[in-house]
DNA sequence: GTCTATATGGAGATAGAC
DNA sequence: GTCTATCTCCATATAGAC
């Protein structure tokens, strides 16, 4: 499975051969079929684990300590960090959906809808508490998730910023998108500044 | 070429067969090879045209009328609109880079670097003019472009929001990311509100 | 559970007539 | 510039010994 993740991430699902996966795993091509019935099932397993992880990350943030600001910060921080640290896996999880069989895609799509719901929940909570100012929750939630997901497309581990730095910067950007920061410190305050306590 | 764009967008480059492209174009498979030497060259042409268009869109916005706020708004609006309206093409342009031959990828990469430079220029101009407040220009520019590009991945023409509505919402989000809006109207003002005149 | 060997199908690309 | 017919290669997946 690790070999398949690497190969799919490098070349894409369709450009990857079962021979490539097998040789990375130190096996013969035939040995793969003991563990997975088809190449697509291998992709499905990878995709399922990754999507379950995404839902878990966001759920833990959404139910975590603190108020909406802390929860949104936690959600973006850990979601971005995962997409950066595990950009290889994430790339397969996020960009190879069209290669899934129909019934597998349906199952995965349900998990993806769940991530949208969780993000909208965090934003709505913040608006209700008067801590966010968001003209259109649905679009904003989608934009935030889009921003996080796309990290896996361009992230380069040899680049200047590591996952933690990137995650912090993105969390600050997202707080701005959500109109957080109260009415007092706008414009002048550093984007990293966060109101509220706890952690 | 239009047939190839459609096929690549639907299935991905590697999953698309030359027979599929040919039949969409109402040709025999052999006829393709009169116009393009290989399937990869077809992708390269599509990618090149798309990237040149991206650079042109951003350049026109960056050199357009008004100040930094108007220019950033114009850049995001037209860039997002293109990724939504032409999401089929954009998907191929943005997500099939790994299928390009080495020398073609090098040429395309130069154009992609150019888009980053243009966006950083707009942001730097705004910071210098005191109209943007941006802790880290490079990351912010990359995030803004990432946000726009990723539109082509998820955009659904049958969804509730058309390209124009989406573009306007994204422009408003991006102004927030840039810390625009002066120091006066923070928190309370609708995200669509823009300071500055001209147009 | 792994191997070697292979069945089977379909891919990209070309030949040569028109 | 387009066609039909086809070459050649390599893909996924299986068979059967160990």
TrEMBL record, chains A, B:
<dbReference type="Pfam" id="PF00440">
    <property type="entry name" value="TetR_N"/>
</dbReference>
<dbReference type="InterPro" id="IPR041490">
    <property type="entry name" value="KstR2_TetR_C"/>
</dbReference>
<feature type="DNA-binding region" description="H-T-H motif">
    <location>
        <begin position="17"/>
        <end position="36"/>
    </location>
</feature>
<keyword id="KW-0238">DNA-binding</keyword>
<dbReference type="InterPro" id="IPR001647">
    <property type="entry name" value="HTH_TetR"/>
</dbReference>
<protein>
    <submittedName>
        <fullName>TetR/AcrR family transcriptional regulator</fullName>
    </submittedName>
</protein>
<dbReference type="InterPro" id="IPR009057">
    <property type="entry name" value="Homeodomain-like_sf"/>
</dbReference>
<feature type="domain" description="HTH tetR-type">
    <location>
        <begin position="1"/>
        <end position="54"/>
    </location>
</feature>
<dbReference type="Pfam" id="PF17932">
    <property type="entry name" value="TetR_C_24"/>
</dbReference>
<dbReference type="InterPro" id="IPR050109">
    <property type="entry name" value="HTH-type_TetR-like_transc_reg"/>
</dbReference>
<dbReference type="InterPro" id="IPR036271">
    <property type="entry name" value="Tet_transcr_reg_TetR-rel_C_sf"/>
</dbReference>
């Amino acid at each position: 499975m690790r070999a398949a993740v690497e190969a799919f991430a490098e070349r894409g699902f369709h450009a990857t051969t079962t021979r490539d996966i097998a040789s990375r795993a130190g096996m013969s091509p035939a040995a793969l079929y003991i563990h997975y019935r088809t190449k697509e099932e291998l992709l499905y397993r990878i995709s399922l684990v990754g999507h379950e992880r995404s839902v878990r990350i966001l759920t833990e943030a959404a139910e975590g300590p603190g108020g909406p600001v802390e929860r949104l910060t936690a959600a973006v921080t850990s979601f971005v960090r995962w997409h950066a640290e595990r950009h290889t896996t994430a790339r397969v999880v996020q960009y190879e959906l069209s290669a899934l069989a129909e019934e597998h895609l349906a199952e995965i799509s349900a998990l993806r809808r769940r991530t949208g719901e969780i993000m909208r929940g965090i934003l709505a909570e913040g608006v209700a508490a008067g801590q966010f100012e968001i003209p259109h929750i649905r679009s904003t939630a989608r934009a935030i998730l889009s921003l996080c997901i796309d990290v896996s497309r361009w992230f380069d581990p040899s680049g200047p910023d590591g996952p933690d730095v990137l995650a912090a910067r993105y969390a600050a950007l997202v707080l701005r998108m959500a109109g957080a920061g109260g009415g007092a410190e706008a414009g002048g305050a550093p984007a990293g500044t966060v109101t509220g306590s706890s952690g």
